[in-house]
Every structure is written in structure tokens, then in C-alpha cells.
Automatic annotation (TrEMBL):
PROSITE patterns: G_GB1_RHD3. Belongs to the TRAFAC class dynamin-like GTPase superfamily. GB1/RHD3 GTPase family. The chain crosses the membrane at residues 483-502, 509-526, 558-576. SUPFAM superfamilies: Interferon-induced guanylate-binding protein 1 (GBP1), C-terminal domain, P-loop containing nucleoside triphosphate hydrolases. This is Guanylate-binding protein 4-like. Pfam families: GBP, GBP_C. Keywords: GTP-binding, Hydrolase, Membrane, Nucleotide-binding, Signal, Transmembrane, Transmembrane helix.
Amino acid sequence: MEISSRTFVFFFFSLCLLSSTSLSIENFHQAFPIVEPAPSHTKLQLSREGLEAISRITTPISAVAVIGPYRSGKSFLLNQLLSLSCYEGFGVGHMRDTKTKGIWVWGTPLELEIDGVKTSVIYLDTEGFESVGKSNVYDDRIFALATVMSSVLIYNLPETIREADISRLSFAVELAEEFYGRVKGEDVAFEPSKLLWLIQRDFLQGKSVKQMVDEALRHVPNEDGNKNIDQVNQIRDSLAIMGDNSTAFSLPQPHLMRTKLCDLKDEDLDSTYVARRDQLKKLVASIIRPKIVQGKTLNGKEFISFLEQILDALNKGEIPSTGSLVEVFNKDIVERCVKLYNERMVRLRLPMSEESLQSSHETAHNEAIKAFDAQHFGRQHAKKSVDQLDEQMQEVYKNYILANEYQSSKLCEKLYTKCEDDMDHLQALRLPSMAKFNAGFVYCNQTFEQQCVGPSKQNYEQRLTKMMGKSRSLFIKEYNNRLFNWLVGFSLVMVVVGRFIIKFILLEMAAWILFIFLETYTRMFWTAEALYYNPVWHFIVGTWENVVYSPVLDLDRWAIPIVCIIALCVLYWRCYGKRKHGARWLLPMYNNQKNVRNRERSE
């Protein structure tokens, strides 16, 4: 009983713990962290509260992010854009350390209708860079993540634009060079965020904020060839090219007492500031567009999935890079292209020649590369994805090479074994025939040549040539001896047949002549080897070959059936032929003397 009560208590506390962790947020009218610094404070990690606030959004999302140095008024600016006080909106800090850690999101999106589509606009507050106790890598990751996430990127700068502020845009420039140069209408990785230069300054000294930005982006003389200046000048050139995707706006200081701003109402703020702030709201609303990723808008859950991909890519390596982002967006494309390559290669019928396989590989490879070129993201950094694609296709190709070698070896071995069996069969012919052996020899060669393909062909060709050469030599060596013995036996059989069975004197005489020639004449005048070179022997051999084997009749196969048929015919004649028709022959036959005498007496 005691054990069961303990079990119940444990179950109850576990249930309470699970229910407490799964409780959803009830009040979304507040800011939530969406990305937090990892314990090492060099990488980033996702926060559950912010993800829950975003996941409930079902309409297309657009994000407005504010970036800039710490203590530059980013949180206060966001509260002003959202028409919120400091006490209900983003936290505003007046101390020397930064208030916002990571990236925060306002839990209640602003609903706007953009191009006839209801869009949820979320506002993001980012941790200021250049604060004490942080690494530059951490600042770069915050900057990079905000650049990728946002549809509108507000670069909040106090007073002026410094060299360091331009250098921080290097990631945005690389993104522009890698992703934004694609043709409109195609599936793009993600559309560029609109860059809004926001200069908080009271006096512009007779210049417009646009002129101020243009001056900051002009080339800096570099007569000494300083690499850092060259790098910043390259960023300036790229930002100038991105001019149609950026705008500039100036905002005066809201009040001289900056530490009291949270306690002041609009009527207490500078009227010029209030007017410019309202203009800024309209400007931001006019340039907001839904976040487009790979050709489609994102709802809350899709935006979170996109964020997880980006964060994983940016956390790779020691520093965030556009190359890691390119790999993320090209990963699916690489997989599709490898699948396309596989679909082309699987159509091949193995085995095939190495040249044909190589040609098919190159055709499928070029088709996959062409498909990748039409779909891939990134320009310079896409080379790594191309290398990955090529490496994966080469691995598949290696498997096809091995499969082709195996299938080729299997097929050629089968053909070789069949030829070997055919040669053994030809060696054991009942009626030796050079013509039949040559026909089988040629047929085996032709069949092997036509059907054996692939990398194993050359090796098996050499084995086949050696095997068939030995078989041919052995057959020729035995052919004359076997034919001689067979003809001797055949002549004796014909003597018996002509004398006692059909009693055909001419057949018997021919058989005796052949027997005497083979056994007596040849032994008296020629050696056995000399016989094989004699024209008479050649005539006999030629006649034998014509009788034994031809394309129409193969006596080695049909000899027994033919002999049986002839034997039946002779038997029929012996039993019934004489009674019905008498023994009238045109050729000389053996006559029965007793029958002759009986006929004379009767007369």
C-alpha cells in the first residue's frame, strides 16, 4: 500500500510538471525573446516563448528589424513605431550595459493589407553591437540573422555614418551578391530586405539624408594600398549598386532629456520629431512586403522552420558566412539534381561498354548540372554546392561502374562457359566433321563478340581465344585418325549390308574397294601421315564432309533416325515387297540358284 501511494504521488508531480511546461502563453501583448545567446555567448539559440508567439500566425508574415549600436535608441524607436509606451512595449535601458539580449519579437503582430493580401507584420528588436563583454562574432551573427529574417531592415545610427557601420553591412552585401541577382518570377531563396538608413541627428548642415549617405558611400582614397580600406570600398561599391533596394531617412532627437523619454507623452516631445516619426511610420508601411522564401510567403510555423535553418547555418564554423546559407538553400536542389541523375542512369541496361557508360554518365551529369544552374542560389559560394553535387554524382557513377563490371563478368562468363561446352561437344562428334566444327567455331566467336559487352570483354576474349585455339588444335589432330578408323569400319559394314541384307553387288564391291584402299594400298605405299596429304584422301574427305554435314542436313544428329527408317524399309521389302511385285531389279543382284532350277523343271 505504501508503494502504491508513492507511485501515485510520483505520477501526480510528473503530471503537474508536464502540464506546467506545456502551458501556452495567454497574454501576447508583450515582447518575447525569439533568439537568445548560447552560454558561450558566441552562438545563438531559439527561445520557446518567441516561437510560440510566432507559430500562432496563420497569415503571411513580414518582419521589420531594427539594428544598430547599443544604446542608440532601437527599443525606443520600435515602441514609437508600434505606438507603445516604454512600460508596455520593448524594454528600454538607460544603464551602460545593453538591455536587449539576442533578438526579441513583439507578440502581437500589426495586421496590414498589402497588395490585397492580409499580412501580419512582426517587429524585431536586436541586441546592440559593440557593447562590453561580447565578441565580434556574436555581433556578426545577430546582424546576419536580422538581415535574413527581416523584410525591412532599419539601420539605426546616431549622428553620422562611420566606417565601422559600413563594414558591418558586408554580410548584407554578400547576401545581395549571392541571392538577389536572380531573375524575378523564379523561385528565389528569399527576397532582399529593404535597407532603411535611419540617421538620428538634429542638424544635417544643409544636406539631405540621402546626400549624407551617398557621401559616406563614396570611395575613400587608398594610395598606400591598405587592405581594410579596399575591403570597405568594395562594400561601398556593392551598396551603391543596391541603391534601388535602400532608402534613407533622418529623425531628429525627440527631447534633450533622453533618460526621461519613457515618461514623456507626444505633446511633450519635439513637434518636429513627432511629425518625422509619423512620416517614418508611413514610409515603413509603404515598403513592407511579405517575406518570400523559395517563391512563396510564410506563415508562422513556416517562418519558424526557415529561422531554424538559418540559425543552424549561421552557427556553423567560427564565423557566420553567406556560404553556409547558400549550402542550406541549395541542399534540396542538390538532392533533386542527384535524383534526376539517378533517374537517367537507372534507365541504362547493364552491362554495356565502358565508352557507352561514360557517355551516358556525361549526358546525365550535364543535365543535372544544367538543372542546378537553373535553380541554384548563390553565385560565388554556389561552387561548393556544385562540388557537393558532382561528388555525389561521382559516388553514384562509381556504383554503376562496379555494377557494370559485375554484370559484364557474369554475362561473359556465361557465354564463355557455353562456348567451352560447345567445343567439348564438337570434340565428341559421332561422325567427325571439320565443316561442322568450323561452323560451331565461327558461331561461338560471333555470339561472344556480339553479346559479351562491358569491361570484362577483353579479359574473356583472351581466355576464349586461348581455349578455342587448344580445342581446334586437338580436333584437327584427332580428326584424320578418327575419320580413317570410321571409314574402315563403315566399309566393312557396307560389305555386310551389300552381301547379306540387301544383296546389292555394286554396294559390296564399292565397300571392298574402299576397305582395300584404306587398309592395304595405303599401308603398302604411304605412311599414315602421308595419306592425309594425298589428293585421293582429300577427295574422300571432301565427299565425306558434303555427305555428313551441310546447312540442310546434319547426319551426326539425324544418322540414327535415318538408319532406322532405312532398316524398316529394307525389312518391309524383305517381308512383303517380293510377294507383291517380285524381285525385278535394274541393277545386278544376287540370284537364288535353287529357284532357277525349279523353274527349269516346271517348264
